[in-house]
Amino acid sequence: MADTVRMLSTLALKGAVQSLAGQYQAAGGVRIDADFAPTLALLDRLRASEAADVVILTRDGLDEVVREGRVVPQTCVDLARSFVGIAVKAGTAHPDIATEAALRAALLGARTVAYSRLGASGILFAKLIEQLGIAAEVNARAQIIPQGFTGEKLVTGEADLAVQQISELKQVGGIEVVGAIPRQLQTPAVFSAGRMVASNKPAEADRLLRFLASPAVAPALRESGLEP
User: Fold this and answer.
1) CA–CA separation, 37 vs 43, rounded Å?
2) Which helix (H) or strand (E) holds 9?
3) What is the pLDDT at residue 117?
4) DSSP H or E segment with residue 100
């Protein structure tokens, strides 16, 4: 459609993009037709030649598609940083996760921990529990989902703790974010955007990228659990 920009975005930006879409249209921008999935799943789709005008991926993922000639390097902009956090079902006790020792105890004490196989948070968490020496114990009782929101496993009672980007946890109703995993144990994910080389709407795509990188979007990013 002539009045639409097609976007493929990582799940971590779903809340922010959905809240900003109306604001963008009100300011004279075109409609944003967005589809959300983990970066690794989006990379597979882009390599299978799925069409899009704008992509939002982890910075590493965006760099990959730039090297492959799929994204125009001059259009790339960093949008937000995101930290991995832990959530529980609403109304249940919040475990202490403030230190490495406390986090280790909380993970071992949980009946089941939910995390994602494909997302940046799941990759970090898998490495973290190896580092903490508790991978075998946690994984023996884990709910490892292929993609989507881990917090949904709290709502259904299938998990006691859910691990994901804080911005993704905040997309699920009926749960509460305990907080971020101690920052010394994680490297924040940087999410970045760029225009696809094959886009047939370069002017509209570039306008949207300028909007997403502008100070005007900072409140929506913070509200969704991201740092501009």
Assistant:
1) 10
2) strand 4-10
3) 84
4) helix 100-109
For 205-218, the pLDDT digits (tens) are 999 999 999 999 99
Name the CATH code of domain 84-185 (choices 3.40.50.920, 3.50.50.60, 3.20.20.20, 3.40.190.10). 3.40.190.10
Instruction: Indicate the class that CATH gives domain 4-81+189-223.
Output: alpha beta
Q: What does the domain layout of the chain look like in residue ranges?
A: 4-81+189-223, 84-185
Relative to beta strand 31-37, strand 189-195 is: unpaired
User: pTM for the complete prediction?
Assistant: 0.85
Strand pairing class (84-89; 175-180): antiparallel
Rounded Cα distance, 65 and 56, in Å: 11
φ/ψ region of 133 (left if φ > 0, alpha if ψ in -120 to 50, else beta) reads left
Q: Is residue 55 within 8 Å of residue 42, measured between CB atoms?
A: yes
DSSP assignment letter at 61:
H
Buried b (16+ CB within 10 A) or exposed e, 11-23: bbbbbbbbebbee
Rounded to whole angstroms, the Cα distance separating 68 from 56 reads 16
Helical (H) or strand (E) element with 66: helix 59-67
Residue whose structure tokens are 């100070």: 215
